[in-house]
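re: ur question from the group chat, yeah i did fold both. here u go
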Amino acid sequence: MTRSPFSARSPQHVVVVGGGPAAHRFAEAVLSVEDHHVRLTVFADEPWVPYDRVQLSKALTGPDGQIDLTLGGGTVWQDPRVDLRQGVAAREIDPAARTVTAADGTVSGYDELVLATGSAAARLDIPGAQHALVFRTLDDVAAIRAEVKRLRARYGRTPRGVVIGGGLLGLEAAGGLQELGAEATVVHSRRWLMNAQLDEGAGRSLNALISARGVRLHLGERPSGVGLRKADGEICAVEFRDSADLEADLVIVATGIRARDRLAYNAGIETAPRGGVVIDDACRTSAEHVWAIGEVASWNGECLGLVAPANTMAEIVADRLAGGRSTFGSFDTATKLKLAGVDVASFGDAYGETEDCLEVVYADPARGMYQKVVVTQDARTLLGGVFVGDAEPYNALRPLLGRELPGEPGAYLSASGAEAPAGDLPDDAVLCSCNNVTTGAVREQIGCGVHEIGELKKCSRAGTQCGSCVPMLKKTLDLELAKAGVEVSTALCEHFELSRAELFEAVRALDLSSWDEVVGRFGTGLGCDICKPVVASVLASQRDEYVLDAGRGALQDTNDRALANMQKDGTYSVVPRVPAGEITPEKLIVLGEVARRYGLYTKITGALRVDMFGARLEQLPEIWRELVDAGFESGQAYGKALRNVKSCVGSSWCRYGVQDSVGMAVRLELRYRGLRSPHKFKMGVSGCARECAEARGKDVGVISTTDGWNLYTGGNGGATPAHAQLLAQGLDDDTLVRYIDRYLMYYIRTADRMQRTARWQEELDGGIEHVRAVVVEDSLGVGEELEEAMARHVDRYEDEWAATLKDPERLRRFRSFVNDAAPDDSQDYVLERGQRRPATDAERAAAEAGAGPVLLTGPRIPVREGAAGATPAGV
């Protein structure tokens, strides 16, 4: 550590103006310098402890008041050397007298002053703009949430939101509006979104993906005003000079940021023509003993609104105050994020502006995918890259910026299907750009005995800010442990030393049939929430017996024990299977009558099924008896099993259809229904290359061609979407089914607990080539055995709800109270868009005060019979 020249005298008093991320990093850095006797006074004009603005969208879309964005847990502000003055803004600084006057009238002298005032949201100079909201602070988040709620109550419909600005903040705001239940339209002056980070190809791919998620786009035009109704002054439109107005109930402006440099300007400190406090390479301003860091600082005529340079500036000033000589040079502009569920990343020379550079591009506009790697003319040195739709290559490529690639550039484009060369990162490669952590620093921590990813993040600081480097951090950890010969535990949990795959084979070899037998042979203790459901799944997938019998009921998760998914209000959802989405009018009528009779909220899912919400536990047998009598069976929406097989209409109706996709989808869904697995899985069958069933986004995807079926595997949605990879092509019906049998059984036998097919397939040694060798070429000689295992499942399958209804003992578990068969009628609901939903705490309180909505109470809602569109009685 740098030793301070001030250690022999009284503590150095440093005043920090600003309470954002840059101020937080400076406080951490200056307090960590050995022998630097310092005390800090920090003026934060917001009432909050400094929080992470990068994660602000989580506060917008998460549970109200339950998202904590406090940086570093707030521990630095508990240091006795720090006086954090929350909600107290600095009003004036006097560099000559070295004083800061606060808004409350107090005057603080300083030895050194650090300006970390950050930036404010830009405002539009158009009529009516003063009525628009912005998206920059926690107060802004609260205002947006409150306005959406107010508008919904005022108009009784979905509010219409318009976001002006198609950059990062604008897209986050649009996604947030959707999550809050409002419509979202993005207005952007350029023809493609995020034009500051993405070239045209990437930007237009992003346009397509964002539009596909229901966000409307109005591109290539600036607004001329925000229209207000004369009657009540409410926002009614966003206006344009050359096109029709957009209807709007609320408007959010997210067109950029402006440095908060007024305090410095008034004190005579030099500011840049385009805004910001001018600094040199040491972050010094034009005034003695005054420094500037973060978004307010203008370096080489530019304010840098990124995390990495702000952190670097903070550490430079901390080092300088302790007698060091560090300087600010180049900075990392890399960006990786997920906007409205879409992966976007760019780094380095994303526009390909370097002279004589080469651009290696993979573009698939139909899928909204764009990947580009920029290299030198000899195709050896990496200059930059941009990725939309699939940003997986970013993790491996960004640390190699400016270095020679180990292999061909095209091999790094995951969309190309090529296998990227593996190789360790050099020690001086920056693994975490936010905190400037090198790979060598990470290796040093691993060498000192840090072998857990959570502890490694804490000790090295890598992955603690934006988190985009965590996959590479984990890969580095695994590689270093492998080199050192350190055995990485694959134990299922503290009760089983075997991995899930090892336990599966052991249970199969010994033909064990109960928890007691399994834990007695291979485990210890009473088990836990990890191993019990795993053992239950293993037994279910091998024996295909009633999932809640033979001592296995107590092992299951809550949803499995009820054969239904529990919802937020304690009620359950009912999801009958609708193979391939094909359903007769008679069955549709049954679903409608059941939902109306029991007052269930209904929704068509993306999986081509009808979800019915709000059933009490004791109602489930009644509901399912009606459904089973009508020919329905369980959709296994509650289990780690096959959820559905999605299909288009194929050759049955579509003029582009090549084969009968519906028939194949029905065949597959009926074959694999009820199949328990390490994780839930889905399938899709498309009748032609237009891919209306989105088969390549499924664990198993089938696409029809003129040569036969093409089989794709290892795709999925969820938190980390992945496109399925081509396993085999030109298959006839029976060969297709045989390969799927093998694939699923091999996955069930070898995958880890809660591991999706995409991650399992990636982590297999050899990846898709290994899977192809086992499934298609039968390289392990187990193909026939895997097919036989699947055949046994098909022969033994019995609908779980049909089996439940036949047995009075099984029905006993469906009671709200163990010692009372009476229903639980303690739930409150409100009517919204013609259906009931759980009431919020605020709505209950308002109803009790006589000012809120009418509450509907009880386990079921009687309805007026007769007229179409019948509503719950009393409403």
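okk and heres the other one u asked abt
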Amino acid sequence: MWIKKAEITSFGKWRQQTFLFEAKNQLVYGLNEAGKSTLYQFIQAILFGFPTKRKKGQDYTPNDGSGFGGRLLIVHPTYGTVTIERYKAKNKGKAKVWLEDGQQGEEDLLEKILYPLNQQLFRQVFTFQQEQLQQLDVLSEENLHEALISLGLSGSNELFEQRIRLKNHYEGIYRPRGRKQPLNQALQNYQALQQRIKEKEAQEAGFQQLVRQADEEKRAVTQQAAKNRNLQERQLTLEQQRMNWAGYAEFLDLQKMDLHLSASEEEQEQLQTFYQEYQQLMKEQEKLHAALQQHSGNQESARYYFYLENENKIQQLLAEKVAITRMLDEEQRIAVKLAQVDEIPANWQQHPPRPFADEQAIQKLFAPLQAQQKKLEEQSIRLRLVKEQRDQAEASLNAYEQKHPELFNRKKNPPWLFIAAGAALVGAFFVPAPLRYVLMAAAAACGVIGMLKQNKPANKDAWQEKLGQLDVYEGQVAEMTEKVAKGQQASQRLFDQLQNELRQRNLPSAENEFAVVQDNQRAQNYLTQLKTREEMQQRQSALRQNLMQQEQRFEFLAEWLPLHEKNLSEKLATLEQFAKEMEQIRFAQTYQENTVLQQRIHEAKKQQQQLLEQHQSLLEKLRVAYPSEVPAFLQRESEVIQKQVRLRELTESVAPLFEQETTLAEIEDVLRILQQEIQAGEMQLHQLQEQEQRSRLQIQQMQADGTLDSLYQQASQQRALVEKLTTDYAAAKLENQLLQDIATELSEQQLPELLKQATSYFQALTNNAHSRLDFSEGLLTVDQLSIYNLSTGTKDQVMMAFRFAYLALQQKHPLCPVIIDDGWLHYDHQRKYQFAKLLQQFSQNYQVICLSSDQEMVSYYQELHQPVWELKGVQR
């Protein structure tokens, strides 16, 4: 195919211009802005359609309102001279085509004439522009395969003709925008049937409205169930808070306390060691003083003698005061905790409960009963619906019988009006004319009145049908009543089994799952508390036994001290006061100092002072003023540690239950309100479930009446037809794809020929400066070097060689002229001359149109005796 003439009405800067082209080689010369590129864009637009407007890029739409478009005359080897006309404002921008034999057509005929040429091939293969010669990524082996297939160079004509036939076949079955194709029509018919089904469903007593209502009721049931579940979970949380309130109150008290240790563990050990050594020195001094007192012989009273004789026992008891005080405090704390008795069922005291492991076990226990209750509720709703239908049928039958009493009274009243009409009509024949007409009018009036008063005879078939329908409903009522009774029995059996399981576990009877979950949680808490109480009782017993032993150690003091009816703490205080009095007596007495004893006492005091000085910094750090304060300090530290441990236990076990600080009264109030909300929510949920089941049953009955069966059957048949046509369409398209794959395989066989031809053209363009083009790992190489290492002009020549190689493979059936728009900007004078010679040679099989502003190329064309014509250009 080659271009013979271009007639431009208006396109870009051109107005009413005609261009004639040679069938071989030609150079269209023009300076910049002369309109060379506009001429190229016109040819492309007439062949393939007008370009869309873009924000970036040149717009060729005329501003003066003249006709945007023109004509193009081409010479085709099959169709001869073809005239193509295209205007933007006419025929929606579609082309009009005229053939030599007078045949006319539009876009479809143009595509058939140009096939397989399309706009992409026109741009990528048959037109040469400078920017295209720099797109080296298209020279990969994979892209070259795709280009061979697009050109249709890789197989025989039969292969491509078969592909065309297959394409026509599957497009004859279905086209995305088609109307006459069988699959398109089948889809339209199927959609129309679906629409009719929807309309029919909408007509049948508000079917769709009922479906939407049922869906809305289902959503309401789901939302109400979730709301009830949230309320129950909140109630369970509050129940746990109420049961653990004592621990939470203790937790709050401990949080308010200052539980920071004044001394580290190491400092406490140092302080303990210091106090023991200090006490030992103190005891040693006391012994030395006792020896010195005995030596002096000053003994005043029997009480003092008693003290001296039992000084060791008394001091030992006083030394254990801290330990005894700790035991007393612990015993008192345990007694307070044991006195706090939670309210528990009486039977748990004799027979402890055996709670479930978790809520899943409870859910599994209730699952059969809940399923049976749901089934029973559905059966009850069905029974009520059937009874309502039975009552309506009975009312309809009674109304029909009242309207037609002749069904039961076979005696008929004589038709007096008809008899009178007959008698008047007979008498009219025997009376004169004036009276005759009166009798005839009276006969007509009696006849009309008789007809109006005549009752329509009863339809026994309708009556029998109503009786039969009532019998059917009565049978359904009896059947559903029996099912409901059996369902109630089954539900009662499952309920008895569940209650038996609860009794075996010694849990209270409950009718719902949530109550069992609460009782189970209460039982688990009770067992935990029971275990804790047992441990505390054992500890209390051990403490009391130990304290009784300690009280027995005070018996030797009964005659000398007023210990009767005093507790252990008071006895210790009395003994401590007695020891202080005796010490005062000891130090108040006058005695003669023994040199050795005085020296030992002095040494002991000196050691005691040194010990005190060594630990003075520790005592000052811990703010202990006197050594006698050490036991109380250590007691406080020990209590702080115990409280810290208790606080950690309560933080892990109780604190997570209380996200916000609250009071027991608030918890009780919220629980009372929640209980009311839960009861109201359960009633609301039951009503919603019943309404939803009623709607679902009505939908089932409406679907089962058979009114839509015919339409459903037609839709099924139409769907089968659509599936068959779809299968045929898919098979033809798949076969076409297989042929495409075969063409791909053939293109791989033809690629070496393309490479050979490209090498030949490349050698001609470079004047044999390079010898070989090849592929390495799918990428093109020149003399085994990457094309990216070449100069810009050489890269352009590589691209040009491949473009001409494509065209050479198609030279027996040229699809389109070769159009080159200044594709040699990077060439030197020698390369330009070689390129001009190549175009002269190549134009023997192709029409070549060069668009250039290069004066040097003009001289080469003239030297080779090739046609050159200048493009002057026009102003807008």
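fwiw on the second one: Residues 489 and 664 are 44 Å apart (CA to CA). The first helix runs from residue 36 to 48. idk if thats what u expected
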